[in-house]
Write a structure and sequence with these properties.
Layout lengths: L11 E2 L4 E3 L5 E2 L3 E4 L2 E4 L3 E6 L2 E6 L11 E10 L2 E5 L6 E8 L11 H5 L1 H4 L5 E9 L4 E5 L5 E3 L2 E5 L12 E3 L5 E4 L4 E5 L8 H13 L15 H20 L6 H10 L2
Parallel strand pairs: 3-7, 10-12
Antiparallel strand pairs: 1-6, 2-5, 4-5, 6-7, 8-9, 8-11, 9-10, 11-12, 11-13, 14-17, 15-16, 16-17
């Protein structure tokens, strides 16, 4: 069996099915060796990172890893931290010291900031963040990057995490001009492109991300959203396209979303 990352449909493995016969692969979660073959021990989607092969169970909760870009929802405001639902077994912790302030500064947080926590995030707010630390009992996330933070004026969608492919960038711009944030936890945010000021270091990182993604995912020219009806229609069509892919258990990324949008014209 080939394990091509270019296939748009998520390949579902069943327990006992041979994943590959080639030697040299490392056994990851959800796999075992049998007579020299690597076989699945759970029903799920094969993931290959270099030589490490694992199977992500279908419909399982999100399992966090350091560096994952995730979308989450604030569930509780506590002393100097927020609890955030990210679709895992337990809520993640967002410390006051781990956020960028609304003005873009990353200064040391003061006692006054601790008293103003609800000025930054309140219950039910949506945000995009990155996993900073994770272990069996806790997950810590941060928003210390201008691309991270509160999400507004868009729509939220949840899909099985197994359908989100790990990539160098989870911030994509569709051919329609709509921005999609593909949380690796299966939470997705769809909106018009956000405006923010980034540092020189972040600008370089974003340029590298853009060059590594498919050129077909970006619009050929700037898209105007002066008419709110046009914006709402484009967001709704993008959401419907992603929902259709999820219903068919097809991998969700820029190419497959754009293909569905093109076919629906």
């Amino acid at each position: 069996k080939t394990m091509s990352s270019s296939s748009s449909r998520a390949k579902i493995q069943v327990p006992g099915e041979i994943i590959c016969r080639e030697a040299g692969f490392l056994r990851g979660h959800g796999t075992e060796t049998d007579n020299g073959n690597l076989v699945a021990t759970v029903a799920g989607v094969v993931e290959k990172v270099n030589k490490l092969v694992s199977v992500k169970p279908l419909r399982s909760r999100y399992t966090s890893a350091v560096g994952d870009v995730i979308v989450g929802r604030i569930t509780e405001v506590q002393s100097k931290r927020w609890k955030v639902d990210i679709g895992a077994k337990h809520d993640a912790n967002l410390q006051l010291t781990a956020i960028t302030l609304p003005d873009g500064s990353q200064r040391r947080k003061t006692a006054d900031d601790a008293l103003r926590m609800r000025d930054f995030f309140v219950e039910h707010d949506l945000l995009v963040a990155e996993v900073q630390q994770t272990n069996e009992n806790s997950i810590s996330i941060h928003t210390r990057n201008q691309r991270y933070g509160k999400l507004e004026e868009g729509t939220f969608l949840s899909v099985p995490p197994t359908l989100i492919k790990r990539s160098q960038t989870h911030f994509i711009t569709l051919e329609s001009g709509i921005e999609v944030i593909m949380g690796y936890n299966g939470y997705i945010w769809i909106s018009k492109p956000r405006q923010f000021v980034v540092s020189q270091l972040e600008t370089t990182a974003m340029r590298d991300d853009s060059s590594s993604s498919s050129s077909s995912s970006a619009p050929s020219a700037p898209v105007s959203f002066d008419d709110p009806r046009v914006l709402h229609e484009k967001i709704a069509r993008a959401r419907n396209a992603i929902s259709a892919l999820a219903n068919e258990e097809i991998g969700i990324y820029a190419t497959t979303i754009n293909d569905v949008l093109l076919a629906s014209n």
